[in-house]
Amino acid sequence: MRRRVLHVTEAPGWGIYSLLVEFTREQTVRGDDVHILAPASMRRLADVSHHDWSVQRNKPQTFPGGLRDLRRTVAELRPDVVHLHSFFGGFFGRLPLLSGLRGTPTVYQPHAWAFNVVELAKAKTAIELWERSAGRRTDVMVANCIEEVDEGRQAGAAAAGIPLGIALDTDRFAPVDAEERARARAELGLGADGVLLCLGRQAKQKGQDQLVSAWESAPIGGAQLVLVGIDDPAELAALAPTQWDKTVRAVASVTDVRPWLHACDLLVMPSRYEGSAVTVPEALATG
Q1: In this structure, are 151 and 213 located in the same domain?
Q2: What span, in angstroms and rounded, lies between the C-alpha atoms of 143 and 151?
Q3: Are residues 57 and 139 located together in one domain of the fold?
Q4: Does 221 map to a domain?
Q5: pLDDT tens for each residue of 275-286
Q6: Does one domain contain both 41 and 149?
Q7: Which of 81, 142, 168, 200 is most enclosed, with most CB atoms within 10 A?
Q8: What's the structural domain count of the chain?
Q9: Per-residue pLDDT for 266 more than 90?
Q10: Which tens digit of pLDDT belongs to each residue from 223-255?
């Protein structure tokens, strides 16, 4: 039986995108009819029908239109199963009556719990209460690791969940020889110093500010800190006035992280909280 699968996400890149590549590849090979509702800026996935989602997490004025997009897409597709990714996908997709998904089997994947984002106790409690309520309208909760499942269970957000691990194409992410590593370093302009790589989207969650501040206080001799995924470097630059553009280098978001993984000596992850970051197995797989 051919199933129609709809993925819903407001996050157009980085870890969620990497997982969607693997999820949708397996589903299309199996013969499923796969669709995704996501921002127009998301790179297109092979053999997947894309539907534009106008919602932007930092712009509440886009929320009503985003809800209409979801309802319209669900009504047109009538999916057999919906996979909701991260907090905003999970929020809009599990709104009682309003989402249009009533009766549709629903999978929710938090990609790190949203109650870890906020610092105010009342906001944290409100999100936990929402997740508990929405959990009753979720058929299956899945996560990258068992710790994320346990955290949801302890908060009352999920009675049970399935840890999926992280799907990774080890033909794409594989070790390279010394010659290829040297070529990558030369093409990226890294020189002879050791390379500590921080790889990820620029966000408070990812903790780049903590890392840059610590480096400014105690830079490592004979090494350079490279942050990839920094599209707005001004605030980070202010945290390292003596080291920025000397031993600290910022690079904007890239579509292929493999050259950076091949070139680095060590992956650094200063995240304030994390489920199980995709960059870790990518780094391990590349050696």
Answers
A1: no
A2: 11
A3: yes
A4: yes
A5: 778 899 999 999
A6: yes
A7: 200
A8: 2
A9: yes
A10: 999 999 999 999 999 999 999 999 999 999 998
